[in-house]
Amino acid sequence: MSDDLARDLRIPADLLPADGRFGSGPSKVRPAQVDALVRAGRDVLGTSHRQEPVKALVRRVREGLAQLFALPDGYEVALGNGGSTTFWDVAVCCLVRERSQHLVLGEFSAKFAAAAAAAPFLAEPVVVRGEPGTLPRLGEVADGVDVVAWPHNETSTGVAAPVQRPRGPLPADGGPLVVVDATSGAGGLPVDVAQTDVYYFAPQKAFAADGGLWLALLSPAALDRAREVGAGGRWTPASLDLRIAVENSRKDQTYNTPAVATLVLLAEQVEWLLGQGGLAWAAQRCATSAQVVYGWADAREWASPFVAEEAARSPVVATVDLDPSIDAAAVREVLRRNGIVDVFPYRSLGRNQLRIGLFPAVDPEDVRALTRCVDHVVATLRKA
After folding, report:
1. Residues 268 and 284 reside in one and the same domain
2. Does residue 169 sit in the same domain as residue 226?
3. Which of 233, 248, 274 is the last residue of a domain?
4. What is the phi/psi pair of residue 169, to 5°?
5. What is the pTM of this model?
6. Which is it for the CA torsion 241, 244, 248, 249, positive or negative?
7. Domain extent for 379
8. Do 134 and 256 share a structural domain?
9. Residue by residue, what is the 3-state secondary structure of the chain?
10. Could you report the per-residue pLDDT of 236-264, keeping only the tens digit for each?
11. How far apart are CA 66 and CA 367, in angstroms?
12. Which of 118, 167, 319, 333 is the most buried (most CB within 10 A)?
């Protein structure tokens, strides 16, 4: 395709979505959240995070998440600075006693496994690895493993994994902690948090906020493990010490100054989800959008879902391969010039692909409009 065509191709206005943001993170932020942020500029932005106005904001987040996820008795909502990448280090320092086992579905789950492998005080982790776009099975928990870890949703590939404890003893009886990276799944996929000991995420996906925070739903066993590991004398930087994060969270604050704007956006989104019908509503909305995308791809001879196993296809991040005869980068460029943004594949996959964020803030009608726009662009390019 010529550069002139990419620059000049205009999609008819009646095909365009009302909102063209389909990023897999950061994701679409609703206008009502922005309005709340403007109001917060007069109340809490630029004020101390250890004073009541900001503490009340953190309390809204913690109480809202506890309600959204129907938190089991004894579980706590903790938060800290740094995002999910930081929480991998928190888990390595404070939750893995000796050895972990990892299910690797893509780039992000691989990075957690790599963090555990690099820790000089831990044994070599057990890594069960699948090819990108596939869902490997965890299998039996290996001897000596005290943490098993996998992602609820692998953002890089669009593979969703079930959240269920492996067979065997529970942590209270010597079984491993179940640590689930829910960064792109939390708030958009159904989950029974009781099947986990740590369900952690960042707020820039389904919760439509900016990054810079991690949040974790912690079981009593996880809280006990953090105390046990810390009491054992393992040196841990204060910024990564889960005990300190929990202590501050119970006071509705963070150890260091948080991104208050992110907290505002997060609180508004959590309360919006609850007002719409909670996690069940959000999961159904995402599933509807996913049915639109995968059904559309299946019906095109030049497109196909990247994830071949239908049950493993993500309802929140859809990946669709285009035929080699169609330049996906050119399609994405035309879409961007027409206000439809951030449907690029994960950078290291190197695929001729569209990756579409389907988080709860995204209207399924806009997803339908996106598919019509792709049809239009592809038809035009084929005629050129």
Report:
1. no
2. yes
3. 274
4. -65, 150
5. 0.96
6. positive
7. 3-29+278-383
8. yes
9. CCHHHHHHCCCCHHHCCCCCECCCCCCCCCHHHHHHHHHHCCCCCCCCCCCHHHHHHHHHHHHHHHHHCCCCCCCEEEEEECCHHHHHHHHHHHCCCCCEEEEECCHHHHHHHHHHHHCCCCCCCEEEECCCCCCCCCCCCCCCCCEEEEECEECCCCEECCCCCCCCCCHHHCCCEEEEECCCCCCCCCCCHHHCCEEEECCCCCCCCCCCEEEEEECHHHHHHHHHHHHCCCCCCHHHCHHHHHHHHCCCCCCCCCCHHHHHHHHHHHHHHHHHCHHHHHHHHHHHHHHHHHHHHHCCCCEEECCCCHHHECCCEEEEEECCCCCHHHHHHHHHHCCCECCCCCCCCCCCEEEEECCCCCCHHHHHHHHHHHHHHHHHHHHC
10. 999 999 999 999 999 999 999 999 999 99
11. 30
12. 319
Query: For position 171, which CATH number holds?
Result: 3.40.640.10
91 close to 234: Cβ distance less than 8 angstroms: no
Q: Which residue has the tokens 């206000």?
A: 339
The token pair at 133 is 């776009």
Regarding whether 232 and 149 lie in a shared domain, the answer is yes
